[in-house]
Amino acid sequence: MRIAVLSDIHANLPALEAVVSDLPSVDQVWVLGDTVGYGPQPNEVITTLQAMGARAVLGNHDGAAIGMVDAKDFNPDARTAIEWTAETIDANTRAYIATLPEVRRDGDLTAVHGSPRDPIWEYITGPDVAAANLDAFDTRLCLFGHTHLPVAYRAVDGRVEGTHGLPGKTMRLNGARALLNPGSVGQPRDGMSDAAYAILDTNGNPDTDTFEFRRVRYDIDRTQRLMREVGLPGRLAERLSYGR
Ligand code: ZN
């Protein structure tokens, strides 16, 4: 089974469209939250995911957009953007977000936005935090997002190893339990502006599972123009050029 893993799309439709045209043939699409917030096209992104039959979870920005999650800890730009998002989303987007689970489980996979022990808010920022989360899910693999950084944490011989997800890198999971982050489609923060996503390939034998980190160029100018047109904070548009 081949699964496309997308996270933190953040209402960036040009980035999502570039990923969709880059996708190899896959059996499923999983989306790890923060589908809206920051970017200019929340409704268009949601209808695109609905058309793809994506299996999504709730992120902090998604919850804040419909008033389910408190935005008091958001920085000023994020808060301005979430207020704009809350006014802009239509009934379909609102209803879609309201049905999203915080945790999704299927077979060998658990999916969350932040971490399995705190799905909405915790950032898995390093091997120590990843190790502290190993007991908080009981499947072999856990997909997560939230940090906007592509990385794989594998449990090997009682400790956790982190590997940065360089573009084009295919990680062999070698049957280990692992926490896997594809990076961000719509607002990468690892110093590269290309949209990030990943392909998880499982074929029934855990020893040969792979997780491939992929990047794809998209029309950043178009997203930035739209953001300025609707009055979203300039810094949120500018950062897309730098991947920070
Ligand atoms: Zn995010």
**What does the overall shape look like?**
globular
Percentage of residues assigned to helices: 25-40%
| Percent of residues in β-strands | 15-25%
- Unreliable spans: none
State the major sheet: 6 strands, mixed
Distance between the termini: 33 Å
Beta strand count: 12
The assigned structural class equals alpha/beta
SSE pattern, N- to C-terminal = EHEHEHHHEEHEEEEEEEHH
Rg over C-alpha atoms, rounded to the nearest angstrom: 17 Å
Relevant CATH superfamily: Metallo-dependent phosphatases
CATH class category label: Alpha Beta
- The CATH architecture assignment turns out to be 4-Layer Sandwich
Number of helices: 8
> Mean pLDDT, nearest integer?
97
Summed up, the domain count is 1
How would you portray this structure in words?
The protein is an alpha/beta fold. It has a single domain (2-241), classed as Purple Acid Phosphatase, chain A, domain 2 (4-Layer Sandwich), CATH 3.60.21. Helix content is 30%, strand content 22%. It contains eight helices and twelve strands. The protein has helices at 13-22, 42-52, 60-65, 76-88, 91-98, 127-132, 220-230, 234-242; strands at 2-6, 28-31, 55-56, 104-106, 109-111, 141-143, 151-156, 159-164, 170-172, 178-181, 195-201, 210-216. Strands 3-2-1-11-12-9 form a six-stranded mixed beta sheet. The chain has a six-stranded mixed beta sheet with strand order 4-5-6-10-7-8. Helix 7 (220-230) runs antiparallel to helix 8. The chain is globular. The two termini are 33 Å apart. Bound molecules: zinc ion. The site of zinc ion has 6 residues, from loops. Zinc ion binds next to loops.
